[in-house]
Structure to design on (212 residues):
């Protein structure tokens, strides 16, 4: 009888020990799996040209969802296409790049210092020595005015080029390295438009492209 009790006690102890080991292993496995938990991130499925504005019509054309260990996903990573709608690519984004919000500008941030932002257009041949042929959406330009004595003064800094067109009026995208920009649209403050076009008609404006 005593032997039986000892045997039963041994079995119970073994069972308790086995359950304890199992619980420890289960917790360890859970911890390991949590450390390698997967998360979603979006990458560029194709090159996103500089100056490209993403919206409802094209955002999924450029994006592809990927799964990655959560520990490797940066906090600023794009995890939802909605994050990019209305944003503009600051520079060319290569195919396969993990996307972050820092790669894009918000349209309202571009005109943040303007009281009433508007889009003003001009022809490349309106301006002497304008970098018209090489301008693309997303570029920044400085605009100078030249006095009758020949002195140049910087009037507007880092004006954002919203869109450019060729001689036939067709839009030129940032991926196009061949076409010559003939018409250029830029963001200006409404209060500056009158002065801009007056100086443009006088032939006194000069434009330079800001190099990155």
């Amino acid at each position: 009888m005593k032997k039986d009790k000892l045997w039963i006690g041994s079995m119970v102890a073994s069972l308790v020990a086995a359950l304890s080991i199992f619980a420890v292993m289960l917790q360890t496995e859970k911890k390991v799996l949590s450390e390698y938990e997967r998360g979603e991130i979006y990458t560029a499925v194709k090159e996103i040209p500089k100056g490209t504005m993403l919206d409802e019509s094209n955002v999924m054309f450029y994006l592809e969802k990927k799964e990655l260990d959560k520990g490797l996903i940066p906090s600023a990573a794009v995890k939802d296409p909605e994050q990019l709608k209305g944003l503009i690519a600051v520079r060319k984004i290569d195919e396969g790049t993990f996307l972050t919000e820092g790669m894009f500008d918000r349209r309202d941030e571009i005109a943040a210092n303007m009281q009433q932002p508007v889009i003003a257009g001009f022809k490349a041949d309106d301006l002497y020595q304008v970098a018209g042929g090489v301008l693309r959406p997303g570029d920044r330009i400085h605009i100078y005015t030249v006095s009758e004595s020949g002195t140049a003064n910087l009037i507007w800094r880092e004006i954002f080029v919203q869109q450019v067109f060729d001689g036939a009026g067709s839009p030129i995208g940032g991926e196009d390295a061949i076409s010559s920009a003939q018409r250029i649209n830029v963001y200006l403050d409404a209060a500056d438009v009158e002065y801009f076009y007056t100086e443009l008609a006088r032939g006194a404006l000069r434009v330079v492209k800001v190099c990155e």
Observations:
- The mean pLDDT is 81.
- The two ends are 90 Å apart (CA to CA).
- Helices lie at 2-35, 59-62, 107-110, 190-202.
